[in-house]
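Subject: design request, 355 residues
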């Protein structure tokens, strides 16, 4: 006589076999994804960024950039507005002011726009020239008009304002990830474009750096202020320095080590301050990503990437590689502590800007 558990097992197997035999042939097979797409084709929509026009070749449509000095209007490339057109703007309303220019909100032909008026001629002309070199690009604000005689620049109005005014926690996580990836794309474009390798100098704190960017209505990031983006030339060995004053850190590690005065026991001397390259932007990248993606469930996945991003810069020696909590490196008793002073230059002769 078989044991009771053997009989129960045989009964379960028999019932399962009969059920499969009876119902297997009656099930409707699930259509494959390919068949589903053929029955219900997905709508193909193409939206071009400012400064781009839609060009159709047969059944294929693509976005093509307008020539430099042009913008797109009604899917046609037109020249940027000049001094005579900019003189027709309505009386402007002051929005904000910086060291180089003052920003006004105004209207032109019924369209709300932004008018930038410079008060430092050399810096304003440099920034306008760089902006015209970098556009059109999907992640760079597209100029609408320029009048260098009056130091005026006409730009589109973005009601969402600057990135420093945005609390990322109010957005859904896909939008926050998109903002982080937009910043990575902008840095890649600044460091690798036909106009040369440029460095974001106007950003010694996270808030100041974010103020150089705009947020669009669909929560995308736009590079807006390029007044302080000096050019690095690896071929000629030309490095940059962000200003002629001593750069200091606050209570964070946001400023890259190579931007600090390397001789803490000697007074600052701009002539002795070594130059550096775009790798100072690479150092700041993890802090911006953390700002956009903090409190996300997937934060632990990006922590590894962010900690590696800070360590790929060749100038980072073990004693200078200080990790903040949440950056993927556990805190140990022998970990270096940041006391606000510049790292000692005992084993480091300068940033490696050759690779």
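Subject: RE: design request

Done. Sequence follows.
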């Amino acid at each position: 006589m078989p044991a009771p558990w053997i009989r129960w097992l045989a009964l379960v197997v028999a019932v399962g076999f009969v059920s499969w035999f009876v119902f297997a042939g009656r099930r409707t097979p699930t259509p494959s994804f390919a068949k589903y797409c053929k029955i219900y084709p997905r709508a193909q929509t193409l939206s071009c960024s400012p400064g781009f026009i839609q060009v159709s070749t047969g059944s294929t449509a693509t976005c093509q950039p307008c020539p430099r000095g042009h913008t797109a209007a009604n899917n046609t490339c037109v020249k940027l507005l000049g001094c005579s057109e900019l003189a027709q703007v309505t009386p402007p309303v002051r929005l904000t002011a910086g060291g180089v220019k003052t920003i006004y909100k105004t209207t032109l032909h019924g369209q709300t726009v932004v008018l930038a008026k410079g008060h430092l001629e050399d810096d304003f002309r440099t920034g306008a020239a760089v902006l015209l070199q970098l556009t059109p690009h999907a992640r760079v604000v597209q100029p609408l008009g320029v009048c260098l005689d009056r130091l005026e620049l006409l730009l589109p109005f973005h009601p969402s304002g600057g990135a420093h005014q945005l609390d990322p926690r109010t957005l859904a996580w896909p939008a926050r990830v998109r903002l982080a990836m937009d910043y990575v794309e902008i840095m890649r474009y600044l460091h690798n474009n036909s106009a040369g390798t440029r460095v974001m100098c106007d950003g010694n704190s996270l808030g100041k750096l974010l103020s150089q960017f705009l947020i669009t209505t669909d929560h995308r990031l736009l590079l807006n202020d390029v007044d302080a983006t000096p050019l690095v030339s690896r071929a000629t060995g030309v490095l940059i320095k962000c200003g002629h004053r001593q750069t200091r850190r606050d209570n964070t590690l946001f400023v890259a080590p190579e931007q600090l005065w390397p001789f803490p026991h000697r007074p600052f001397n701009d002539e002795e301050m070594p130059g550096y390259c775009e790798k100072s932007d690479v150092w700041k990248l993890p802090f911006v990503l953390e700002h956009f993606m903090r409190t996300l469930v997937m934060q632990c996945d990006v922590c590894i990437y962010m900690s590696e991003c800070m360590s790929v810069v060749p100038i980072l020696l073990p004693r200078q590689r200080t990790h903040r909590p949440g950056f993927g490196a556990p805190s140990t008793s022998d970990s270096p502590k940041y006391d606000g002073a510049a790292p000692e230059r005992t084993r480091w002769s300068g940033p490696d800007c050759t690779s």
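The first strand starts at residue 52 and ends at 57.
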